[in-house]
Amino acid sequence: MFLAIFYVSVCKKFLRARRNTTMGWRIWKKKSEGEGQPKAKLEKLPRPKEIPRLVGQYLVVQLRKDPDWVWKLKAVVRKRPENKSSYNVRVFEDYQARLKKVEVKDFNSFDGHPDLILYEGWFDKASNKVQIEEKSVPAPRAA
């Protein structure tokens, strides 16, 4: 019993001594206002995916593109600052990007390769509005 009490008192003294050191491991204390604030948070953009339904429908119905070709295209999106339900979109052909050995990671990947963008514009999920303009569209290739 004495040994257990002695062990507890030694541990308490050790922990008190550790708190007084300047190791910087004080996770239980709040940081001051200017200290520890995250730097400018970069927006994490999604990877390329299938084209959004609204964009695909617009290309097939309004622009009268071949549906088999349209639904094989890929798109990258980025939220628009004006509205939470609206997105900027860039549509591209994955095959062409691989031919030119361009790795498409997100929306900003096309800043250095604008020739790969087939269609660019925006769409709004809430109001079902789409505005797309043709950039450079190759003729659909035979299978």
Please state the CA-atom Rg, rounded to the nearest Å.
28 Å
Note the run of SSEs as H and E: HEHHEEHEE
Counting DSSP E segments of at least 2 residues, the number of strands comes to: 5
Strand count, sense and barrel status of the largest sheet are: 5 strands, antiparallel
Mean pLDDT comes to: 80
What is the overall silhouette?
elongated
Q: How is this structure best described in words?
A:
By secondary structure, the protein is an alpha+beta fold. It has a domain at 49-134. The protein has helices spanning 2-19, 53-61, 67-70, 94-99, and strands spanning 49-50, 74-79, 86-92, 117-124, 129-134. A 5-stranded antiparallel sheet has the order 1-2-3-4-5. A hairpin with a 4-residue loop joins β4 (117-124) and β5. The protein is elongated, with a radius of gyration of 28 Å.
Task: Write the SSE topology.
Elements: H1 2-19, E1 49-50, H2 53-61, H3 67-70, E2 74-79, E3 86-92, H4 94-99, E4 117-124, E5 129-134
Antiparallel strand pairs: 1-2, 2-3, 3-4, 4-5
Looking at this protein, list some descriptive labels.
single chain, 143 residues, alpha+beta, five-stranded antiparallel sheet, 5 strands, 20% strand
Q: Quick recap of the structure?
A:
The protein has 143 residues and is an alpha+beta fold. The protein contains 4 helices and 5 strands, in the order αβααββαββ.
